[in-house]
C-alpha cells in the first residue's frame, strides 16, 4: 500500500510533503558538501599545475598545461552544477536490482571520496530509467520523484507511482508540479528541461550518434529543447569524437540564437558552436529577410549555376588589353585572347579561383610568346639587339611605353632558351605585374555578390535560369550597399566555395623577398602570398582584402589556415525553412558529420518543399554540392532514425485550440499536438479599423503588462524592404504591409519595458512568450502563398494569453470557432 498525499498535516507541525522535502534536503545537502570538496580538489589541481610550471623542466610546461586545462574544465562543470544539482530520485523494486535501491539523478555525477555514487549524471545509462519508465513499462522503478529546487534548497516534490504493487508503505506526494512548471513565467531566454524530459523526448536525446536523427513535431513539443539536450548528451557520451571536431547548432535567426544560447552552458557544455543562418559565414552578416518572392528566387538551387557564371565573368574594372615589351618588341593581347585565357583558367580552377594567379600568369606568358612569334618577334629582336633604337623601340616610344631594356638597373636578359629569357623578362615588367593584379584580383565573395547589383553583369550570369523581371528584382536587391539578407549569406558562401582561399600566407621577411621579381608591394603577385615585414601596411584595396581574409581565418598550430571549419555533428533547428542554397551552405560544413535535424513542415514558409528536400538529402549524405545543374549521382544514404514528438508543452489548451484552427486551414491533413495544460484564460480577438491596429497593439501590450510577469511578444506583419513595382496596382495586403515598417515598430515599442518585444512574423520563429499580441492576421495570411503557415507560427508562440487584432470581422470566427 502506498499513500498519496497533497499537503496533508502530519500532526507534528508539518505536512507529509514537508517531511519528505526535509528528508530529501538532507540528502541534497550531503551531495552539495561533496560538490564543494570536489571543487576544492579542482582548484588545488589548478594550483598544482602552476606550481609544476615553476619547476622549470621542459616537460613540465606540457604537463602543467594539460593539468590546468583538465582541472579548469572540471571546475567549470562543477560550478554549473551548483544550481539544482539533484533533481531526481528513483526507488527501485526488489528483484534483479538490489531491493530498495535508491538512485539520485542530477546535472553531473557526484561520488563520495570512497567512489560510491551519490548522484548519477542525467546522461549516464543508469539515469535512463528516470526518463523512460512509465506505468505500462516501469523498468523496475516503483516511484519516480522529481525534486524542484531553488539554488541549494528543495522547494517542491512530485512523485509518479509506476508500480503500485511494489510500493508497500511508500509515500507518494505531488499536485502537478510538472504542469505548474510549464505555466511558469518566461524570462526571455530558454531554460533547460533536464529534470522533466519526457519519455518520447528522451528517446530522441539518446538516439544513436551516427547517421541522421530526424525529429518532427508541432509547435511547443520541445524540438528545440530536445535538440539542445541531445548535444549535451553526445558531448558527454562521445566527448573525444564530438568534443575535438566540434558540434554546430544552427537556428533560423539571431533573435532565436540569443533565445537559446543559455541552455547548453547551463548543462555544462560550452563547447558547441551556435550560429544562425545569417551569421554562419564570416565577414557577411544578414540583418534583413527577403520578401517571400525574392527569397524563393535567391534560395533556389538554380542560383548555383548563376553564381558559377558570375565568378567566371571578368572582375569589375579588369583591363581588356595587355601590352608588354621584349627586346624592343611590343607584344599585346586583345580582349578575345584574354577572355579565352580567363575561361580556360576558370574551367580548371573551380574552387580555387583565388589561388589561380600563377596559372593565369603561365597562360598569359604562353599567349604572349605565341603572339611574339606570330609577329616575327624572335627575328626582329635579334636585329634590334645591340641597336640603340630599332623599329620596335620606335613603336614603343610612340605608344609611350618604355622597355625595361632601357631602364637603369635593368638586368641582362640572362641565359636559357629564348622562351625562358622571354618569360623571365616579361615577368619582371611592372606592366605585367600591374596587369595581373587587375586582371585576376583576389576577390571577396561579398564583393562578387554586390557586383551583381549591376543588371548588365547579372544578365550575363543569368543564362536561362532567370528571366528579365528576376534579373531586375535581384539586381536591385544587391545594388547600392543594401544590407545582406539571410538568403544572401548562403549565396556568399557558394561564391566563397567557388573562389577558394587565397594562397597560404608565409610571413617571410621582406629581406628574403627583396630580390624576388614577383614581389610587388609586399605581395607575390603570382601567388598572392604575403611576404611583408610585420609592420608593413597594405595600401592597395586588393591587398587589404586578402589581409582581411587571412585575419578572419583560423590559424591552427602548424600555421595551416583553415577557412571553413567542418564539424563532427550538426544540429539544424527549424529545418523546414531552409532553402536549397542554405542546405548547400550547411552541407559544406558537415561532409563527414552526423546530423540532428528538427522540423515542422506545417510551419514552413518555404514554397518549393520537394527541392528543399532534395538539397537536404544531398547535404545529409555528405555529397559534394555540384555547382553545375546536372543530375546528381545520389550518394549512399546514411542510417536514419526518425521520431515524432506529440505533446505540446508550450501552449495552454485554449491557445492550442486557436492554432489548431489555423493549422486546419493551412494544412488540412496535418495533426495538431496534444496540449496538456489548461489556463482558463480565453484567447481574445478584437475587430477594429485597419488604421487603428498599431495603436490597439500597443494598448493590448500595456494591458498585458499588468497580467503577466514574463515576456510579451507583439507580432506584426512582415514589412517588405523591396519597393513596390511602379505601374502595377498594389494589392490590399501590400498597402497594409507598408504600415509595419521599422519606424512604426519603433513607435509601437517606445517607452515599453524590455519584456515587451515587437517583432515581425518571420522573427517570431521558435520563440515563446507568456502573452502574444498578433496584429493583422489577414495581412500575414495574404503576404505569401504560405501565409497561413506563417500565421500558424505566430499564434502558437504564447503560453498564457493570446490577443489577436484584426480589421476583418470574419477572422473572429476563423480563430475562435473554426
Ligand atoms: N519535458 C519538458 N519539460 C518542461 N518543459 C518542456 C518540456 N518539453 C518542452 N518544454 C518547454 O516547452 C516549450 C516549447 O519547447 P520548444 O521551444 O523546444 O518547442 P519546439 O517544438 O521547438 O517549438 P517550435 O516548433 O514552436 O519552435 C519550452 O518552453 C520548453 O522549455
UniProtKB/TrEMBL annotation:
Binding-site list for ATP: 217-224
Coiled coil start-end: none
Keyword Lipid metabolism: no
Top-level division of the source organism's lineage: Bacteria
Basic residues: compositionally biased ranges: 627-639
Domain UvrD-like helicase ATP-binding: 196-652
Keywords: ATP-binding, Helicase, Hydrolase, Nucleotide-binding
Annotated GO MF terms: 3'-5' DNA helicase activity; ATP binding; DNA binding; hydrolase activity
GO biological process terms on file: recombinational repair
InterPro entries: AAA+_ATPase, DNA_helicase_UvrD/REP, P-loop_NTPase, UvrD-like_ATP-bd, UvrD-like_helicase_C
A Gene Ontology term for the protein's cellular component: cytosol
Region (Disordered): 616-639
One Pfam family of this chain: UvrD_C_2
PANTHER family tied to this protein: DNA 3'-5' HELICASE, UVRD / RECB / PCRA DNA HELICASE FAMILY MEMBER
Protein name from the UniProt record: AAA family ATPase
Annotated source species: Actinomadura montaniterrae
